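User: My collaborator sent over this chain with a note saying "see what the structure looks like." That's all I know about it. Can you take a look?
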Amino acid sequence: MGAGPTGLVGREGELAKLAAFLDTAGADGAALLLTGDPGVGKTALLDATVDLAAAKGRHVVRGSGDEYETDISYAGLHQLVSALPDELGRLPQPTREALEVALGLGAGPAPSQIAVLNAALSLFDEAAKEQPLLLIVDDLHAVDQASRAALGFVARRLAGRRIGLLAAQRQEPGESSGETFRSTGLPELQIAPLDDTDALRLLSRRFAHLPRRILSTVAHEAQGNPLALLEFAGSSTAASGGRHPQGAGWSSGQGRDVRALYSARLARLPHRTRDVLLLAALEGSGDIGILETAGGPGSLEELTPAERDHLVIVAENGRTVRFRHPLVRSAVVDSSTGEQRRTAHRLLADALADQPERRGDHLARATTAPDETVAAAVESAARSSLRRGDTDGAITRLRRAAELSPDRADRRRRLSQAAYVAAWVAGHLEVSHEIMREVEGDPATRSLPAAATAGFLVLVTQGDADTAHALLMDAIEQAPMPPGPPSGELETALFTLTLASQYSGRPEHWQPLIDVLARLPETSPTAAASLGRVHHDPGSVTDRMLRRLDEEIAGLRDQSDADVVVRTALTASYLDRLPGCREAVSRVIRDTGAVGSSMPALMFAALDDLYTGHWQPSTDAANQLIALSEETGYHLFAQVGHYIAAMAAAQRGDLDACRRHCETVWEWSGPRRLRRLENCAHQAAARAALGAADFETAFHHATAICAPGVLPPFNPEAVWSAPDLVEAAVRTGRHEEARRHAEALCDAGVGRLSARLALSSATATAMTSAAEDMVRCFEEALALPGIEQWPFEAGHARLAYGEALRRQGHNRDARVQLTAAHDRFEELGARTWQARAAAELRATGMTRTSRGKAGEALTPQELEVARLAATGLSNPQIASRLFLSPRTVSSHLYRVFPKLGITSRAELRDALQALPPEPPATQP
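Assistant: Without extra context I'll predict from the sequence alone. Here is the result:
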C-alpha cells in the first residue's frame, strides 16, 4: 500500500470511506464518528477530509472539545455558531435569539433546550443553502454535555439535508468503541494503528536519512501509532543526529509519552510565545480577538515561532487559532506552572468582561484563597447560567463560589442555593444531599437557604412535613421581615414552608404560616405568600389578583425559567387556569432536561387533562410521574401521581384501579399524617362511588374530607368535592346536611373564580332547592358561560337535573337532560356514569318495541327494579338509587315475579338473561 492523494500513508481504505461519506452528506446528509487511540491519526484524517471537502466545494466549519470548557454549557456549539455570523443574522428573530441567549451572545429569557437545538439545526440549514455544509468536531470526548446533546440532535436529523457531521473522539485503553458517547447516535468508523509495512513506509518517507535499524526500532516501539512514529523519529533526529537516543526520553512500548516530546519542542520556543500559547490553550475557542486582548499589543506576532514549528495553525480568515493536535494543547498546559496558569486565567477574565459566565470561570481558576469579590462574580455567573437554563452549570458555579467565600455564612448560603437548585430544578437528589452534608458539617447558625433546602429534601423524599415545617418556621422567625414583598432567600423559604403546610393540611402547620403571611403585603399571584393565601381561602382571591394572574399566565409563552413556570402553574391549578399554562408546562417536560421541574410539570399536565376530559393522557402522565418520582426518590410527588390516576379511574368507572391507587396513597400518607393527600384519595373514592350509585359509600368518603355544612380553611379538596357530598347526602336522605353544605359552598364565594367552580356551586344549590325552584336553578347553572370547557362537570349537572325532573314526574323533559348526560359520558368514556344515565332514561318510561312474551308485560320501572334486585341490592338500596320508597320497590317486585314466571330473587338473574336482546329505545 502507498500514500493516498492526501499524502497519508496506509489510510486508503479510510479515505475512500470518508470520500463516500462526503458524497452522501452533500446529497442527502450524513454523520460519522471516528474513534481510536490517541495519536492514531483521527485528526490527520479530519484534516484530509477538510481538503477533500474544499476540493468538492463544501463549506467547512470546524470546532473541537476543550477539557477546560467541559463545564461551560454549549461551549462546543459556540465554536460552530460563531463561525457562521452572516447565516445567524439571517435567521428569524426568535430562532436567532434562542441561540444568542443560550451561547451567551445576547440577553433575554432562557430558551428551552429544544428551542436551542432546533435553532442550531436551522442555522446549519441556512448555511447549507448555497453549498453543502461540513461540520467537523475533533475531541468529541472533551466537548461539554450540552453541545454533545446538540450534535446528537443534529446528527439524527440530517436525512434530506445537505449537511455532513464528522467528529472524532479518543478511545481510552480498555474502553469499547464509542462506549462513553454512544448516546450521540453517530455511526462509527474505527481507526486502527498502521501495520508494520505502512509504519515503515511512513517513516521512510519522512525520515529517509535515518538508518533502517533506527526506523525498525521506532516502528516496533510505536506499534503503528502514526503520531508516535513521527514524534519518536523526529526526537531521534533532533537528539542524536540520526543515532538511537538513550536515556529517560525512551521507554519501550506504545505507551511512550508523546506529550513529553511536544514539551521538549515547546521548551525551545521563546518565553513570550509560550505565554500566548498558554492563553490559547486555556481560552478554548481560539478566538484571536480574545487572545489579543488578553495578551496585549503584539501578542499575535509571538505565535509565529509556534506556527513555523507546526504546533498551531491560524485560520485563513485570521479569526481563530487551533493546535495542530490536542496533545499539543495538553503539553502546553502540562509544561506550565501553577502561577503561570493563574496569571493566564486572570488575563482571560479581564478580556471576557462582557461574558459573565466565562469571566467567572476564569476568575475562579485564577484564585486559590477565599476572595469575596471573586466569589460574588462566580455567583453572578451561576445566576446567568440558571437564566439560560443551564442548571448543572449553575450548581457547579455556586459550589465554586462557596469555596471562595471568606465568610462562613456566605459559604453556607451559596452551598444551600446549589443544593436547592439541584433538588428543585435539576432533580439531582444525590448531589443535593452531598452538598447539604457539607452545609450541615458547618457549625454556623442555620441559614434560610439551608433550612429551605433541608426542609424540601425531607419533605419530598420522606414525606416528613413535621420536620420540614419545624426547620423552616425556626429559620423564618429568626430572619428579619422586609418592608416590601419577600424575595430571594426568604421567598424560597416561604415557598417551601407553604408546600410543607399544604401537604400536611393540619392546623398546627398552616396556622403559623397564615400568621406569617398576615405580616406581608399583597404581592405577585405566583409568589409564595399569594400561593399560601389561595390555598388557605380561595374565596378571598381578589379580582385584581385574578387579572394579574391571567397576565402572568399570558407571559409564560416567553418564559423558559422552569421555576417560574412551575410556580405559576401551581397557583393557576387552584383557580382553574391550567389550560393557559399548558404550552409552557409542556416545554418544561419536553425541553429543559431538568428532572426536578419535570415532576411538578407532569402533575399539572395530568391535572389539565383530567379536568378537560382527556383521561387517558391524564393517566399516562400520572403513571409517568409515578415512575419518575419513584426512580429518582421524590416519593411525595409519586403520591400526587396516584391521586390523579385514581381520579381518572373514578370518572372512567374503573373501580378496581381507583381503589388500588387510593389505598397506595392512604398507606403512604396515613403514617406520615399528610392529611391533604389522604383527602385527595377520599375525593377520588367518593367520585368512584357516586358513579357506581353507591351513595352511602360516597357520603362516607366525602365527609372524611370535611363535615357537612363546613368548608374548612387550607382544604381545597373540600371545595372540589362539595358537589359530590351534596349529591351523596341527597341520595341517602340527608337533606338537611345537603342543604347546609350547598349553602356553605355558595357562601365561600368561589363561584366567581372559574366557570367550573361556578357550575359546581350552582349545581349544588339546584340539587337542594325547593321543588318550585328546581328547574330555574338548574337552568341557570347550565346557562353559565364557559362550562363546556369542563365536560365532566357539565355532564354531571345534566344528570342531576334529569334525575330531579324524573322524580317530579317530568319524564319528557328529564329525557332531554339524561340523554345529553348519557351522550357526554359516552364521549368521555365514563362507563359507570353513562350507566347511571341509561338507568334513569329507562326509568322515565321510554317505550320499546316488543321484547317477547316473557318481558312485554313489564313496565320500564318494573324492569329497572328487577335488574337492580338481580345484582343483590336490597329494597332500601334500590329505593335510594331510583328515588322511590322501599314500599314502592316491594310492590314492583311483587308484580314482577309472576310476570317472569319465578318465585324468588335468586331466579331474577337467569330470568332476565333469558330475555331477548333489547332493541334501540324510541321516545314518544
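A starting point for your reply to your collaborator: The radius of gyration is 37 Å.
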